From TrEMBL:
PANTHER family assigned: GLUTATHIONE S-TRANSFERASE GSTA, GLUTATHIONE S-TRANSFERASE-RELATED
Entry protein name: Glutathione S-transferase
Location of the GST N-terminal domain: 1-83
Location of the GST C-terminal domain: 88-215
TM segment ranges: none
Species the sequence originates in: Pseudomonas poae
Length: 215
């Protein structure tokens, strides 16, 4: 299998952490697509992924799977023993719900803030920017942080009692917020404590090691 991504991208981080959780990192070929040069928006990559987003999974038979949730679902069920996406219909529904909320209320909001309220990926990539909209999305991301802080006061992980794809999505939001210097409010103690715990997971440590030594 191949993964097209960029070594320290926050969305690629989600799939790399999922790969580490499943013990699949050694069998993956990573293909770098340079975000800062806008390679993900060039015709060669758009021919593979119409959306022009990273990461992208290519199977050995040439099948292409985009979107973090879809890739994680595929990887998690390869061995017949899902650990990240739920074992029962109820678990699966809750995990997918919370993953979507993590994207809409937090991670994607940080992304809009980055692309519109900061220099983003630079003028060659950011062909249109709306700073007012970007700042509003920055505020939305902070509201999202407070939402997840409230949830984590009542449960150990985002979707319940077990670490899941939803936690990886919120972690992706935290990674992105750190990259763009969007601070977590100090009063979000439950979110910060959860963040400290998940940072100690071997999968997250493996991702950080890859970021420190990009291939």
């Amino acid at each position: 299998m191949k993964i097209y991504d960029w070594y320290n991208g926050p969305y690629p981080a989600r799939v790399r952490i999922a790969l580490a959780e499943k013990g699949l990192l050694p069998g993956i070929e990573f293909v770098s697509v340079n975000l800062w040069k806008g390679e993900h928006k060039q015709p060669a990559f758009l021919a593979l992924n119409y959306s022009g987003t990273l990461p992208l999974l290519e199977l050995d038979d040439g099948t292409l799977i985009a979107e973090c949730t879809a890739i994680t679902q595929y990887l998690d069920t390869l061995d017949g023993h899902p650990t990240l996406t739920g074992k029962t219909p109820t678990e699966q529904g809750l995990i997918h719900m919370m993953t979507k909320r993590a994207e809409i209320e937090f991670m994607d909001a940080v992304s809009v803030y980055f692309h519109h309220a900061t220099p983003g990926l630079g003028p060659e990539v950011e062909l249109y920017q709306n700073a007012e909209w970007g700042n509003r999305m920055g505020e939305k991301a902070i509201r999202g942080m407070r939402y997840f802080d409230g949830l984590l006061k009542t449960r150990p992980f985002v979707a319940g009692d077990e670490f899941s794809m939803a936690d990886i999505a919120v972690l992706g939001g935290m990674i992105f917020a750190g990259l763009v210097d969007l601070p977590v409010p100090e009063e979000c103690e439950a979110l910060l404590a959860w963040h400290a715990r998940v940072n100690e997971r071997p999968s997250v440590q493996a991702w950080r090691a890859m970021v420190a030594q990009p291939q």
